[in-house]
User: Which sequence fits this backbone?
């Protein structure tokens, strides 16, 4: 059975002393994300996010099914997360860890329950046929901060995804292939992202005293192992908070928490702009210059 | 230098006799990564650079593998997991079987004066028993002389993870010439004082007077390892990181 990694005493003490001197082991500022990379696949709805050494692959797919009987006008949207032993030896097949539960739960709360995807627009025939959109989140490599990276991956992939066009005449639904008609993007209401804060209680501050708390964002896995508490804020670029999850850990002052939310808003705006830029450059790459160019029979062959 | 690196080998290929050293008196010594299949076939078991030493009549494969496999005589940095009446249970690498460190295998240790190690403490130890079917055993004292030879608990400092190949390069007798690692020499030449311990299990322990120096040295080694920097780039990196403190 794999044994959970535990940082040694020397690492713990060194980390604590470094925090007291306002240093981070990898040399970042306390409120700095690692290098964020986002790539889209050849297919629509495939996004690959890299946050330092953390890497997440997301694939969106859609198919036509019958709606739930209690919600005949709503399409379906499901989020599935998978943490395989490939991501880290701590994960075992078919034995969900708390990390995995937390990841799927927080994504569900942030993206699905906040109605980021307009499920009513996925309805084709009321009570009979709707689109079922499915987002598969695969964690390829785990080096901390899975929730933030996964939320970026899902939101980017959902914006990148195109579903096949359909025409509804009476009771019959015709689904056109991607070559027959231009596929249509999903209707999104807003783009929520998560920002996770890690709290470190340096002690010493008794009672009302403050300032002995350090708050880091985008913690690596070793920083996550040493933290005294964490808090995940899900919000969109307009500053609307979708969820706050603080599951146990050290008690945090309200002012610190409010400050976290302000920082989260700023980070979400930055990341949203980054995702938007990447989507735009991907669109340009795909755009061959209008229909006439695309329908040309000439080959690009070099003679 | 008697060591020659001749060719790149892949596991399972057959080695011609021309690549193996021959010596009039000494028997041929096979090092890590090679396997003898009787009567007279030698095949590599890993991918890497085939190296041979004519003087010692030895041949081995240099490779940068991911998983540490304990070998007798290796110096390692172990983390103590829990004590027991006879042993400390220590881990050499994550998700691997635990190694045992007998309570009395420290310099001058007796039942009354053995060191008390907390769970999570680091020790610099030598692998004294390594067997495919048994948990490895460690020692912090030379069994022949009774001296510690620098082995024992490591206090303070910081632990960094490096690749096994880098650990091996750092532990060569002359790392600058043989392993092309000059970054530590560069720090030393500038008058930075630090203490360092390299474990063959891919661990590097660094301690110095200030946190910034410790971090800078650890990160310089990690960066050299990760990006495969050549000596010139290592010197530049060392000078750049010394500006910070």
Assistant:
């Amino acid at each position: 059975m794999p044994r959970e990694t535990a940082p040694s005493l020397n690492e713990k003490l060194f980390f604590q002393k470094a925090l007291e001197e306002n240093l981070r082991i990898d040399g970042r500022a306390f409120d700095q994300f690692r290098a964020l990379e986002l790539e889209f696949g050849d297919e629509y709805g495939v996004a690959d996010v890299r946050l330092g050494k953390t890497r997440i692959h997301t694939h969106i797919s859609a198919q036509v099914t019958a709606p739930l009987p209690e919600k005949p006008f709503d399409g379906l949207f499901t989020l599935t997360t998978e943490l395989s032993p490939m991501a880290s030896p701590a994960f075992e097949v078919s034995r969900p860890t708390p990390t995995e539960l937390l990841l799927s739960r927080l994504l569900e709360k942030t993206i699905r329950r906040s109605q980021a995807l307009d499920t009513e627009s996925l309805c084709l025939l009321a009570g009979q046929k709707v689109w079922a959109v499915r987002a598969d989140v695969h964690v390829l490599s785990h080096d901390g901060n899975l929730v933030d990276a996964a939320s970026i991956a899902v939101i980017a992939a959902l914006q990148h995804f195109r579903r096949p066009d359909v025409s509804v005449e009476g009771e019959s639904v015709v689904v056109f292939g991607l070559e027959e008609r231009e596929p249509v993007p999903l209707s999104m209401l807003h783009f929520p992202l998560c920002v996770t804060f890690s709290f470190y209680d340096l002690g010493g501050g008794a009672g009302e005293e403050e300032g002995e708390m350090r708050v880091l964002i985008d913690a690596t896995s070793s920083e996550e192992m040493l933290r005294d508490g964490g808090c995940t804020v899900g919000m969109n670029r307009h500053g609307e908070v979708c969820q706050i999850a603080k599951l146990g850990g050290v008690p945090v002052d309200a002012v610190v928490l409010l400050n976290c939310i302000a920082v989260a808003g700023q980070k979400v705006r930055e990341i949203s702009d980054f995702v938007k830029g990447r989507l735009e450059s991907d669109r340009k790459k795909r755009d061959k210059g209008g229909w006439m160019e695309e329908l040309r029979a000439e080959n690009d062959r070099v003679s | 230098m008697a060591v020659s690196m001749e060719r790149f080998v892949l596991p399972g290929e057959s080695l011609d006799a021309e690549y193996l050293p021959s010596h009039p008196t000494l028997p041929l010594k096979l090092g890590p990564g090679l396997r003898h299949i009787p009567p007279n076939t030698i095949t590599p078991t890993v991918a890497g650079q085939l190296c041979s030493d004519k003087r010692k009549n030895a041949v081995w494969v240099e490779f940068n593998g991911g998983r540490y496999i304990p070998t007798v005589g290796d110096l390692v940095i172990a983390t103590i997991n829990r004590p027991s009446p006879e042993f400390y249970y220590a881990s050499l690498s994550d998700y691997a079987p635990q190694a045992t460190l007998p309570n009395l295998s420290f310099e001058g240790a007796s039942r009354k004066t053995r060191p008390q190690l907390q769970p999570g403490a680091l020790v610099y130890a030598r692998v004294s028993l390594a067997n495919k079917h048994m948990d490895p055993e460690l020692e912090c004292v030379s069994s022949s002389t009774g001296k510690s030879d620098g082995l024992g608990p490591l206090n303070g400092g910081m632990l960094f993870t490096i690749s096994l190949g880098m650990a091996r390069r750092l532990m060569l007798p002359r790392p600058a010439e043989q392993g092309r690692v000059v970054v530590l020499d560069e720090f030393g030449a500038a008058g930075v004082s630090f203490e360092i311990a390299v474990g063959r299990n891919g661990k590097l322990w660094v301690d110095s007077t200030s946190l910034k120096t410790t971090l800078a040295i650890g990160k310089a080694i990690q960066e050299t390892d990760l990006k495969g920097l050549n000596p010139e780039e290592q010197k530049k990196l060392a000078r750049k990181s010394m500006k910070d403190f």
